[in-house]
Amino acid sequence: MSGHERPFWLRPKWVVGHVLIVVLVILAINLGFWQLRRLDERQVFNAEVAARTEVAPVPIGQLVDPDDGVEVGSEVRFRRATAEGVYDPEQEVLIRSRSLDDRPGHWLVTPLALDDGTAVAVNRGFVPFTSEPAIAFAAAPPPTGRVVVTGLVLASQERQGIGPTDPAEGRLDALVRVDLGRLAQQHDGSDLLPVYLQLETQDPPQEGRLPVPLPPPEQGEGSHLAYAGQWFLFAAVGAIGWPVLLRRTAQEERPRR
Fold this sequence. Notes:
By secondary structure, the protein is of the alpha/beta class.
């Protein structure tokens, strides 16, 4: 059978089209279900945040101790806790490449020395970008003397994918993430707890405008449902549109026989 005698849908260019449409439809369907899984993960996250933040705050020592590994953070994250002690500004660090209300800057993390000889890192909030950590430290000194902090318990941050890393040795004024293992490595004196606090309130309060306290974790569901609908729509267009095109082409081909 010659190339002109075989049905048009079996000609090489059409066969390539069949394969391409099948691949694209399968890909679009999988991407749609992936977005639905992302939505489900987000809803689980939101439920976890809501449930744990509603629990009354307790002293941080009731939740963790220095002998716990950093994995304990996932078990108690988003609980609210209190800590009483004295800030140690000599050992505070910046967390680079952060933003607040579209402004570039840093987080300011200061250890709080507790009465039991341990310390907890406190994310005191946001400071505007500066290339010199000393400028940021000077612009937002912590309260002196005894302080009572209430905040969200959060887990040590881990590297995601091919994200940047910090030097393995030496004392650093700025880190790329709240890596409690790296922070403990350069922390002098008391043991550092394996979780940190995101400050909500403190007594006495912060003097001045900086640092700006961070907002609570966002609990929106994002655009996952809308994206899933778009991918399923693309799959439907391909699955329905291609047979329609084949039918119309067959009708156009018929008079030529």
